């Protein structure tokens, strides 16, 4: 699909047409719960191991703390970290342990998608259907996702990661402006500019850096806060990339933005239309709020843009998304 083929006035029809072209329903059988993670095979993981050359490891996670970007939209808040036992309690002698032993314990309360995270297959529905055509009301209930909960992929999300630093390849000072729609042409131009180590293929986990997080951090340093980073305008993937996402057979994709796709969306009245196809129809796992800045600097320095990536979600039973601390090992 080309960007000019997007009918801004008809999101419903454009989404339906895309679904007809790219749906993976039934591709791995009626009972499948892994979606595009089926592309990430044991052989793919073995092949990815040879990408570890120096042993340098880089976290792609943002912090999980009360200073995060969430602003309360959809009741998403920043983590609240509370101590249950402290050094103060130990010194005061109120912990009740023998022979001078003391300790600390803590608890955290947070939405599972408040910082670096994966969207699971139960996160988004299309006309009441979840991944593989299942009725949403039978899959996700008040008890959680009973079929495609995030725990189904807890063992398997590691393999070849590929950074597409679109911000550095196409942007100004390494950043794309808010509202910049990344098309298939932009992705291919980035791959060409970066060289053969950024070629994307079956089973890869793609990390797209737009540079928006870098811009948001400057605002924090200047005392302006996060601004509209969580939920506002942002660079991101164009709806027109839906055919590319299907064709290249990646296992997952993640960005340094709050919502993965370009915002405002490319229709006169719509909300996250690419999600509506990618998750319930492609079965694609989407990562958001990833921090690719340190990795991008390392890749630019030595010209290598692929790496071994381990990015398994926290095994929260029945969750439709979960925190992750992705580690790129180069």
Automatic annotation (TrEMBL):
SUPFAM superfamilies: Putative cyclase. It holds the Pfam family Cyclase. It comes from the Bacteria. PANTHER family: CYCLASE, PTHR34861. This is Cyclase family protein.
